Amino acid sequence: MASTITVLVVLAACAQAKVFDALRLAQDLKPPKVSQSEKGEFEGAEFWDKHQALFDAAWIEYGHKHATLYEYDDAFRQLYISSELRAGVQHARAPGHDESSLRALFEEAGPDVIGSNHVFTSLFCTHMREELEHKRASGIPIRRPNGMNRYGAILEDVGFQKVLDGLVEEYLAPLGSMHFPEAVLPRDIDHHYAFSVRYKEGEDLALKEHTDASAITINLCLGESGGELAFAPYVPYGSKPRAQAEPGLRTPVHLAPGGVLFHHGQHRHQALSVGDGSRTNMIIWLHGKHGAVRVLPYSEDAQLSAAQRWGAKPAMRRSSEL
Hints:
By secondary structure, this protein is an alpha+beta fold. It is built from 9 helices and 12 strands. The chain has 2 domains: 62 residues, no CATH class; 255 residues, Jelly Rolls, CATH 2.60.120.620.
């Protein structure tokens, strides 16, 4: 709310002066150099915090390439959510809460990794990729997405907050609970952090092994090409001494354009080299309030039923609202 008020103040000041040049002012700024490939979350933080209201106004002035990406409504669902997923969710929300057709859309892509090519439409991947390219061409400085990836964008920062709130609340959070019922109750995934990452020659080619700051991670390959991730065996917290949680075996998992992976945030994984190709991914971290990530599994009698998963929906919040 505070950020929205600040943007309105900036816009009102521009209008009063009969000058609307937030875009030019933002383009004239020189962002801090991006260098750290580890622990870079706060690289240049003072610059980004100082100018965020100006950037918000500049994005409004710059405009969209695909306006349909910014309103979460029936038109968005029809264009961008697969018909199979919409039908499966409709069955799961109906009396009886039958998840069978929904579960049939997913498969085990690797041990403790769930994959599907039936979540988003190919048009969504194309439009999102083109929209991100449109934003890169704006000349407006774009903050790095996380502490390891240097290239990409924090999606809420560039205008996607409303759509992400709707997507996570209606589809992604309940799906995450369906796939990993031992990992989360609604309070454990009532916030999210979403970003894009880009891999290409001359930028980031790969990502070293790591865990995510999430309870559940959702990874969508937008293209241009697919790629591979490698997952270590997942060891739930408390199941064995942590010293035994780092065996050498790694399972490669291919992620084709349009494919989506769901996995535990604490599941160690890495992005393998894209070589001379290029790839853009959209990643959403689901977690609790204040960035809390629960790691202790819930007992079977504490886990959600299908009726609870697809009944009342929690109000989702982005991480910046914590």
